[in-house]
Amino acid sequence: MVRTRFAPSPTGFLHVGGLRTALYEYLIAKKNGGQFILRFEDTDQKRFVEGGMENILKSLYWAGIIPDEGMFLNEKGVVDQKGDKGPYIQSQKLEIYRKYADELVEKGHAYYCFCTPERLKELREHQQKNKLPTGYDGHCRMIDPTEAKQQIANGHKYVIRMKMPKEGVTTHNDLILGEISFKNELLDDQVIIKSDGFPTYHLAATVDDHVMGINPVIRGDEWLSSTPKHIQLYKYLGWEIPPIGHIPLLLNPDKSKLSKRQGDVAVEDYVKKGYLPEAMVNFVALMGWNPGDERELFTLDDLIKEFDISKINKSGAVFNLEKLDWFNQQYIRKLSDEELAERAMPWLKEADLDSMPKEFLAKAVSLEKERIVTLAELPEATKFIFHVPEYEGKMLIWKKSSVEEARKVLRELAEELDTKSVQAWNRVDLESDIKKWIGERGYQNGSVLWPLRVALSGQEKSPSPFEIAEVLGKEETSARLKSAISRMI
After folding, report:
1. Which residues touch 50 (CB under 8 Å, ≥6 apart)?
2. Parallel, antiparallel, or unpaired: how do β-strands 35-38 and 3-6 relate?
3. What is the CATH number of domain 335-386?
């Protein structure tokens, strides 16, 4: 069975690059009738952030990427585990990693290293000064195991390093990048157990992927240089090496690695700004993958059907915020008015605009559906509906009109609108009747529609005045016209 895994560190938030990796792994599993597993790699305790697991899970759930096994949010919204191959938090299984590390030592594939941080620092400085490859020099590699155990008994601090071969090459046939070879002489003896007893990523991830039956292993290409070390661990432990693929990085517009220095990188930042999960998923899916044709809009179900790992690009993809905005606009426009109001409720509540009936809210947000980019823009964009707008009287005067003409037009228009029945108070009938009235009076459209727009919205640019009037209703429309007339006295 195909089993993919997403294994983030609980460092506080889910990076958009991590979301893309999780999405690709999810799509591979689902397309092949497999399972998607989530585990947390928290062996670096210095980077642990309280609440980090919960934040990452919430971001994944927001995007619709729900784990089949491993870490999940239970009915109470609490982080929990499910599955028979756990624990799915690495810090809870230190004894398991230590067992495999000891096995590697006993077989002669790993050794105890007693080098102090000071010696390692001096070694690195010497290598850099002399323009030599940096890495551990094997100083403790040949210490007799009996002597090493005696030093441990005497209280000496140590780490466990794996013995890498020093000749030949390690060749990796990457699922995404193709065949890649590494010179073994350039690979140092990686630490697999740190002095605090915690495993490093290399041992823990390899053990977990084997024990959990992960196939294929998909991860970001920042781990590509570590792959020969992981391959060696599989060989040393006598395990079958699973297919491995590395996804190229997301990039800033200047082609540097996507980082917070040039913009938001956390999924939760985009959630707060009012981006829709459908848009974000569609967007990140196409950053590095394409279906082979001109299609751009894909639901999650569409992606499951279409996704093909062979079509992932071998080079990094630029994070284009303008393109994300475009996707978000497309998905906002697909929403019904009622659903748009429901999705925008957190922002409407924050702006104290949520007290009106749901039907009214749906009509209000519909006015800006074609104009907004994110849900967070709706309160500001629609506030003129909920509150009588403030504006200067001179705004009511169309460029080809005078104060007298604008005042006359508004008075006559107010009288005309007073004759309309509440039953016929809708944008279609209003537009038809008022434009007919304009023609009969010999007015220009601008001399009537401009002051009407400003009177109702307080803005020079807004939705159609007929759309606004329908949402405001007859009574409020009349009141705003009378208020506008008073501003020009």
Report:
1. none
2. parallel
3. 1.10.8.70
96: number of Cβ within 10 Å: 16
Which member of 82, 121, 183, 260 is catalytic? 260
Long-range contacts of 472-479 (CB under 8 A, 24+ apart): 472/385, 473/422, 473/425, 474/417, 474/420, 474/422, 474/425, 477/417, 478/414, 478/417, 478/418
Residues 462, 61: Cα–Cα separation, whole Å: 36
Q: Residue 311: how many CA atoms within 13 Å on its side-chain side? A: 14
CATH code: domain 93-247 is: 3.40.50.620
Which distant-in-sequence residues (6+ apart) come within 8 Å of 168 by Cβ? 184
Q: Does the active-site annotation cover 260?
A: yes
Answer whether 445's CB lies under 8 Å from 433's CB: no
Q: Which pLDDT band holds residue 12 (cuts at 50, 70, 90)?
A: confident
| Strand 217-220 relative to strand 244-247, pairing | parallel
Query: What stretches of 252-347 adopt beta strand conformation (E)?
Result: 317-318
Cα separation of 466 and 469, whole Å?
5
With 0.85 as the threshold, say if the pTM is over it.
yes
Q: Is 383 exposed, middle or buried, given 0-12, 13-18 or 19+ CB atoms closer than 10 A? A: middle
* Residues 393-487, CATH architecture: Orthogonal Bundle (1.10)
pLDDT band at 133 (very low <50, low <70, confident <90, very high): confident
The top-level CATH class assigned to 3-90+250-318 is alpha beta
% of residues, the chain, pLDDT over 90 = 87
Domains 93-247 and 393-487 share a fold: no
Q: What is the pLDDT of residue 319?
A: 93
Domain definitions of the chain by residue range: 3-90+250-318, 93-247, 335-386, 393-487
| Alpha-carbon gap, residue 93 to 458, rounded angstroms | 63
Strands 169-174 and 178-183, by their bridges, are antiparallel
Q: Determine the pLDDT at residue 260.
A: 66
What is the average per-residue pLDDT within 371-391? 95
- pLDDT of residue 261 exceeding 70, the answer is no
